[in-house]
């Protein structure tokens, strides 16, 4: 059995595929590819594959991670090409490689998004003000109920620029098996501090990273 | 902002957005500049339902095989998205190009059930297409057509459609599109095209027909104009092995009702159950060869990536090569780890080795469509399942580890008495008793018998087309009687809302005077009538009363044998004389043998010009 890690894009119309639907979609993609994917043993054998991080509905990504196993040795490039030949529009495998790190090594993810507004100057200032706060408190739904968290300490803004009718932001947020912050948390916090109307657009996951900011592989 | 941007701006506000944006594997995208005729195939229900429809998959692929024709899909949006569409001027669009369907050459609806009619009006409105055929442009474009089983009596929709297509669409759809293409090039008008289209067998243009009524409300006579034929005969495919079958399906992202490969194994039915419309309107019986079935199964599984396949037919067990066919299929599917689902399979005369194989793959529950509670009533409806057969199969199943059984019945069947209703409870009780009489029954579990009762709906082109439906009071009495006849908690009873079945029979047996009622009901907000949570019975009743139409004239009146029926000018190959004969036989509680045992002279073979077997 060969352990394999695929990095794939989910863009365009594919961003409307929910996480649950993505599971079904991949099952069928594997079947169409006729790759010798490893099945679980037991009463109800099914192809084994798992996604490192769930991606919110409506987000695009260039760096989704999917692990699976093969029964036979197939060259990685061939695995990539055979999957791409049968993938839905908007989804494309960019890389197939060995599984180097454990899933638990994932610590954060990089997101980029645009906040579209009629008043970009005002919105830009509101963003700057929010970022200057000592703490950014927001209510977050967890399995145990709603709790208030301070996202400031774990949030690292990489860039924040005015760009035509939008304010474009990129940031690191915690991700992985422990803590997961969604960029929409930041947007909710922003809404609480400003009257200026804005619409988020083009939310993208740019990279999945380890604690030392290296790309997870 | 183009339409795609408008849609995407709001897509994340709605449930299951992947239903509204296309891009599925298997969907066909063409270059519009190279396409001559565009066809929007519309299913008047949501994506989840419509995407499951096999006929649409066949005709979609078939049309798209032609390089210069483009068939696209269109479904009714859920209420959440409809609201957004109306508020933001998003007209109903097709999923492949995301272009508005009002700009298409053909807008085709499939009429699968009567309770979708109000949704059709809603979709036309949402598309920005005039709802009444008479209000559409005189130019040759935007032809609104319909096909499917309910087209066997399309009269309640006659004012809304330009063309009805009778019977199987595989050949006639392309003939119609070819004619359109030719006449479009010549610069013909809409009316010229419609006149010419009536010359194609199976094409019914309702505006060339008009009706006069007697004082008692029944039909006096039908008038035909514009050289259209007096009688329109449905189309059939002669050879099931030569007819087109797709090698690929559109594979949805979101889960749909029938989310699997579906392979048609035969058309028509030899059984002749007297309540069953499909059993008569799809005649003659025609089989696909085992070789075709296996080849199509393999191609579809490989191209779609589905890991489940189901066989589609009215009665798969009646395939003459069933044992060999299933053996071959199971060998393939087991090897490829594909689930084979075998709905409504009679297992009476299978070989031992096949039974063993079926046991391994069969996961679905045990279901019997007994339909009637007593043997007498089952003879009346010609449902040839005997109590012995039910008991035998239950015994085998219980010994094999099953502990639950589902039984389907109808209530309000012709000649039905209270004794027949009590018979339902008795039959269920005997199955419970049988379970406890078996020594090696599943231990540690009780038995569960689910009884599901639908209200009988008499349908056109069946021997029961003349029959009235029970009134609501009669059905409610029978439902109470059944509940009080059941003495054990091991039998669970459920039944349908009789108010839904009442609308169903009215729309099924109605005439053109219902067009205005459907329109009025839609104006009052009726749509998705087959969805319990959307059905507005009071609004429908208001619509009937506003239009001065008496629902009981259609629902609870016996149609006479010599009456001109609203669908008498449509020829579904089965003769009216045969249906009358069968109706009389039913009232004598006599059965008619299946078509393989003996030809009962329904008239199909004479019209097709060859024997069925």
Protein model, in words:
The complex is a heterodimer of chains A (217) and B (613). With 217 residues, chain A is α+β, with helices and mostly antiparallel strands. Chain A is built from 4 helices and 10 strands; from the N terminus they run βαββαββαββββαβ. Chain A has helices at 19-33, 76-84, 120-132, 183-193; strands at residues 2-10, 49-51, 60-70, 91-98, 106-116, 137-142, 145-150, 156-163, 166-174, 199-210. In chain A, strands 1, 2, 3, 4, 5, 8, 9 and 10 form an 8-stranded mixed beta sheet that branches. A two-stranded antiparallel ribbon of chain A has the order 6-7. The mean pLDDT of chain A is 94. Chain B has 613 residues and is of the alpha/beta class. Chain B has 3 domains: 3-233, Rossmann fold, CATH 3.40.50.280; 260-350 and 577-613, Transcription Regulator spoIIAA (2-Layer Sandwich); 365-496, 2-Layer Sandwich (Transcription Regulator spoIIAA), CATH 3.30.750. Helices cover 36% and strands 14% of the residues of chain B. Chain B is built from 21 helices and 19 strands. Chain B has helices at residues 3-11, 47-50, 54-65, 79-87, 117-127, 169-185, 190-197, 278-281, 290-304, 322-335, 352-361, 375-380, 387-399, 418-437, 472-485, 498-509, 515-523, 537-547, 551-555, 576-587, 604-608; strands spanning 37-43, 69-75, 106-110, 143-147, 163-165, 203-204, 209-213, 219-224, 232-233, 261-264, 266-267, 286-287, 308-312, 339-341, 366-371, 404-411, 448-455, 491-495, 570-571. Chain B has a 6-stranded mixed beta sheet, covered by helices on one side. In chain B, strands 15-16-17-18 form a 4-stranded parallel beta sheet. In chain B, helix 9 runs parallel beside helix 10, helix 14 packs parallel to helix 15 and helix 17 (515-523) crosses helix 18. Chain B starts with a helix and ends in a 5-residue tail after the last helix. In chain B, 45% of the residues are buried.
